[in-house]
Amino acid sequence: MNLLIILALPLAAAILVCLPLKKFWAPGVTLVSCLAVLILSARLAWLASQGQFITAAPQVGIFKWIQADALSALILLLIALIGTTAAIYSIGYMGHQKLRPGKLRLYYANYNLFVFSMLAIPLMAEPTLIWIVVELTTLCSALLVSFDDTREALEAAWKYVLLSLMGAGMALFGFLVLFAAMQAAGGGTYTWQGLITAAPTMPPVLLQMAFLLILIGLGTKAGLVPMHTWLPDAHSQAPSPVCALLSGIETTTILYVILRLFPIMQAAPRVHAEAWAVIMGLISVGVASFLLLQVRDYKRMFAFSTVEHMGIILTAVGLGASAAGYGAMMQIVSHSITKSFCFFAAGAALLTMQTRQIDGIRGLITKSPVAGTALIFGGLAIAGAPPMAVFLSEFSILRVGLTQKHYVATGLLAVFIVIAFFGVLLRVNQMVFGARQIAEETPNATETNSAHHFRLPLSCRVALFLAAIPVLVLGVYIPTPLHDLLMHAASALTR
Amino acid sequence: MNDAVNQLYTNLNALAAGLFLLTAFGIVATRQARGCLNLFIVQSLLLAASALLLGLRYNVPHLYGVALVNLISKPIIVPWLLRRTSPAEIYTRREIDQALNIPTALLIALALAILAYFLSVPVSSAVSADFRGPNIPIGIAGLLLGAFTLTVRREAVPLLIGLLQMENGAFFTGISISRNLPLIIELAVATDGLIIVFIIGVLTRAVHKHVGTTAVGELASLKETSAPALKEAGK
User: Fold this and answer.
1) What average pLDDT does range B182-199 have in this prediction?
2) CB contact under 8 A, A296 and B210
3) Closest-approach residue (CA) in chain B for A130
C-alpha cells in the first residue's frame, strides 16, 4: 500500500499546485509531498535493509508490477532525499527570479511530475513499463530544462529530448528482444525476478543483443561517453534545483535500470556484460576527466563530473559485481548527495554573480561567504577529497579493483580520478579565492562584481546546510541500517 | 482451405512489410515536412495492418487491440496534436540544406537496410518458427533508418517523425517476436508517443517564438571552447 501512496503523492501535488492560490501554496504543497515521500521511503528502506521484499497491496492489473527490493529502496530513498532538498532550495531560488505566478505554478507542476516519473522507475518491476517511465522522465523534465526560455536553454532542451528519446528507441527494441528471449525460454513472468530465473535457458544471442541495445540506449540518457553530448548542455541550462535533480539522481536512476541487467546477463557468459561495463565506464571516466580540464562554465564543469561519476559506478560494477557491488552502491549514494549539493552551490554562485562563466567569477568568498564556502566544499567533496563521502566510496572501489587483480583497469581509473580531481579543484579555487583584478578585465562581470555583500535567500542557505550534512557524515561514519541496505542492494547485482 | 487462408495472411503481411520499408526510405528522401508526416501516417497504417494480419494468422486476439491503438493514435491524434501545439509554419517548411544530399542519404539508408538484415539473422535463428518472418529485418531497418533521419535532419517535424519511426520500427518487430506483450503496455506506449508529440510541439513553438525558426538542428551555440566568443559576438 505504501508503494502506491509514494507514487500517488507527487501526482496529487502536481495537480494541487495548479490551483491559483497564495504565493506560498505551490512551494508548500511540493515540499509537504516531498517530505511525506521521504518519510515513506525511509520506512521502506528500513524494511528493505532487513531483507524484506515489498509489493503493492492489490495484485491486479498494473499494480502487480509494483515491487521493491533493497536496490529499489536505495534508489527510491535517494530520489526522495534529493527531491526534498531541491524543493527547499527551489523556494528561495525560484522566488528570487520574480516570475509570473502562472509560470511558477508551471515550474512546480513539472517538478512534481518529474519527481513522480523518477520514483516510478525503481518501483516498477516490469521492464517495458520501466521503459515507459524512463521516457516520462525525459518528457517531464524537458520543459524544466527549457524553463528559462533563452536560446541556449531551448537548444539544450531540444538536444536532451532528441538524444534521450533516440536512445530510448534503441532501448525499447532491446526490451522487446528481452521479452522474445523470455518466450523462447518457455515464458514466465516478465519482471526482473522472472528474468533472472529464466535467464539460463534463454538464447544467449538474444540476451547479448538486448544487453547491448539497452546499454547503448539507456546509456545515452545516463550520460555515458560517447552518447553524453547533450548532458553538459541540459545539466547546465536548467534552473539550478532542477540541475541537482537531473545530475544528482536522474542519471543514477537510469543507470539503475542498466545495473538490473547484470544478474540476468551473468547466466550467459558469452555476453561479457562485465567487460562491456568496464570498457564503457573507463571511456566515460577518461573522456570526462580530460573534458573537465577545458571547461569555461562552472555548471558544465559539474555536469562533466556527473559523466565521470557514472563511468566510475559502471566500472565498479564491471570490476566484479559481487565484490565491487558494495563500492558501486556506496558510490551511487555519495555521488547523488554530493552532486546535488554541488549544484545548489553552483546555483548560489549564479544568484550572487549572475554569470555562468568561470572567468567571470573571482573572489566569491568575499562577495558571498556562504556561496563561496559552499562552492569550495562542494568542489572538494565531488573531486573526492577526504574525509568526504566520495573519497570513501572511490577508495573502496579502487581497493576492491586491486584485490580482484584488475590492475590495468584500476590503475586507469585511479589516474582519471586524479586528473578530474585537479580539473575541478583548479577551477573552484580560482573562482572562490582568485584575486579580484582578473575578474575586472573580463567584460560581463564588471557591473556585478561591485563590492557589497549579497545575501542568499534563507531557503537556499537551509538547503545547502541540510545537503551538506550527509556529505560530511557519510565520509566518516556509515550507520548500520544504511550499511545493511547497501549490502542487500549490492547482492541484487549478482545472481 | 485453412492453409490457403493462412498463406494469404502471410503473403499480405509480407506486402505490408515491404511497403513499410518503402515508407521508411521515403521519409529519408522527402524534403517537405508535410510529405514526411503523410508518409509516417501511411507507415503507421501499415504497422496496424501487419498487427491485424499476424493476429489473424496466429490467432492472437490482443494484436487486434494493438492494430486499433495504432490506427487511432498515430494517423489521427498525432497530426491533430501537432497542429494544436506548434506554429502552422512547420508544415510549409522545406529543407534546402540537409546535412547530406538526397542520393547520398538514400545510399546510406540502403546500407543500413542491408545491415538490418544481417542483424536480424541471429534473432530469427534464436526464436521459434512462428515468430520468424519479414517483420524482424524490416522492423530493425525502420529503427535504424529512424535514427539515421534524426542525425541528418534539421527541421522539427522530420526530427519528430524520425523519433516516432524508431518506435514504429521497434514495434513492427515486436508484434512478431514479442506478440504476447500485455495490451496495457501497448496502450501506455501509445500514450507516451502522444506525450512526445505534445512536448516536441511545445518546444518547437518556443523555439519559433524566441529564435524565429523551426530548424532546430541549426541551434548550435552550446559548445565547450567557443561559448564565450559567441556570447560576446551576440552583445
Assistant:
1) 88
2) no
3) B185
Calculate how close chain B gets to A167, using CA atoms only, in Å.
9
Contacts of A126 in chain B (CB under 8 A): 185
- Chain A residue with minimal CA distance to B202? A143
User: Residue B178 is nearest to which of A180, A237, A291, comparing CB atoms?
Assistant: A180
Identify which of A61, A176, A209 has the shortest CB distance to residue B174.
A176
Q: Dihedral sign, CA of B195, B201, B202, B203?
A: positive
Q: For residue A10, what are the CA distances in angstroms to A33, A38, A86, A433?
A: 6, 11, 14, 41
Chain B contact probe: residue of A64, A133, A144, A158 with most B CBs at under 10 A: A158
Name every chain A residue with its beta carbon within 8 A of the beta carbon of B222: 152, 155-156, 159, 232-233, 237
In 3D space, the residue among A43, A203, A227, A62 whose CA is nearest the CA of residue A128 turns out to be: A62
Q: What's the pLDDT tens digit per position in B59-117? A: 888 899 999 999 999 889 998 998 888 777 777 777 666 677 888 999 999 999 999 99
CA nearest to A357 within chain B: B228
Domains in chain A: boundaries: 2-491
**CB-closest option in A143, A158, A169 to B146:** A169
Three-class HEC string of chain A: CHHHHHHHHHHHHHHHCCCCCCCCHHHHHHHHHHHHHHHHHHHHHHHHHCCCCEECCCCCHHHHHEEECHHHHHHHHHHHHHHHHHHHHHHHHHHHCCCCHHHHHHHHHHHHHHHHHHHHHHHECCHHHHHHHHHHHHHHHHHHHCCCCCHHHHHHHHHHHHHHHHHHHHHHHHHHHHHHHHHHCCCCCCCHHHHHHHHHHCCHHHHHHHHHHHHHHHHHHHCCCCCCCHHHHHHHHCCHHHHHHHHHHHHHHHHHHHHCHHHHHCCCHHHCHHHHHHHHHHHHHHHHHHHHHHCCEHHHHHHHHHHHHHHHHHHHHHCCHHHHHHHHHHHHHHHHHHHHHHHHHHHHHHHHHCCCEHHHCCCHHHHCHHHHHHHHHHHHHHHCCCCCHHHHHHHHHHHHHHHCCCHHHHHHHHHHHHHHHHHHHHHHHHHHHCCHHHHHHCHHHCCCCCCCCCCCCHHHHHHHHHHHHHHHHHHHCCCHHHHHHHHHHHHCCCC
Percent of chain A at pLDDT above 90? Answer: 72
Instruction: Give the distance, in angstroms, between the CA of residue A174 and the centroid of all CA atoms in the same chain.
Output: 23
Read off the pTM. 0.93
Q: Are A148 and A241 in contact (CB under 8 A)?
A: no
User: Which has the closest alpha carbon to A156: A229, A241, A252, A225?
Assistant: A229
Going by DSSP bridges, is the β-strand pair A54-55/A67-68 parallel, antiparallel, or unpaired?
antiparallel
CA B196 to chain centre: 13
A contact residues 391-430, partner B, Cβ 8 Å cutoff: none
For chain A, what's the residue count?
495
Lowest mean pLDDT among A27-41, A46-60, A122-136, A407-421: A46-60
